[in-house]
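Per your request, structure below.
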């Protein structure tokens, strides 16, 4: 189940650059992009499967891989927008694509892969049905 044409299950959030995220030159330190990705994924979960509901069911997402391509520096004065969408939703794994941009110019792109984990049985489990069904519905235009 992979698609590159559509932005399936896309979420978007404004990113507030904080003074403690910048270096002496006024540029956002690269490590902060991982935090931005986490903020975007949190918005995704809030929209599609709130974390408190997952935890009640004994399931949690786990992150297995992150990569980032830095394109253009972010500064304290920028007002970036962070976006993410699902590029793969397999039985046991998921993949997100990320984009952080300011005024239409891309600052960074990224990719994360992960899975879901049963906190009671201490083992990976299939992607929750609720997420898999949402992915299939949007992939096939049934939203």
């Amino acid at each position: 189940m992979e698609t590159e044409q559509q932005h399936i299950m896309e979420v978007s959030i404004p990113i507030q650059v904080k003074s403690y995220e910048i270096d002496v030159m006024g540029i956002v330190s690269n490590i902060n992009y991982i935090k931005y990705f986490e903020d975007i994924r949190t918005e995704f979960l809030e929209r599609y499967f709130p974390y408190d509901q997952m935890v009640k069911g004994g399931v949690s997402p786990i992150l297995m891989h992150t990569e980032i391509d830095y394109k253009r520096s972010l500064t304290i004065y920028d007002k970036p927008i962070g976006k993410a969408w699902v590029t793969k939703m397999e039985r046991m794994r998921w993949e997100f694509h990320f984009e952080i941009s300011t005024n239409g110019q891309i600052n960074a792109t990224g990719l994360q892969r992960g899975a879901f984990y049963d906190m009671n049985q201490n083992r990976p489990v299939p992607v929750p049905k609720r997420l898999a069904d949402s992915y299939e519905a949007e992939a096939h235009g049934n939203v």
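Residues 32-48 form the longest helix (17 residues).

Regards,
D.
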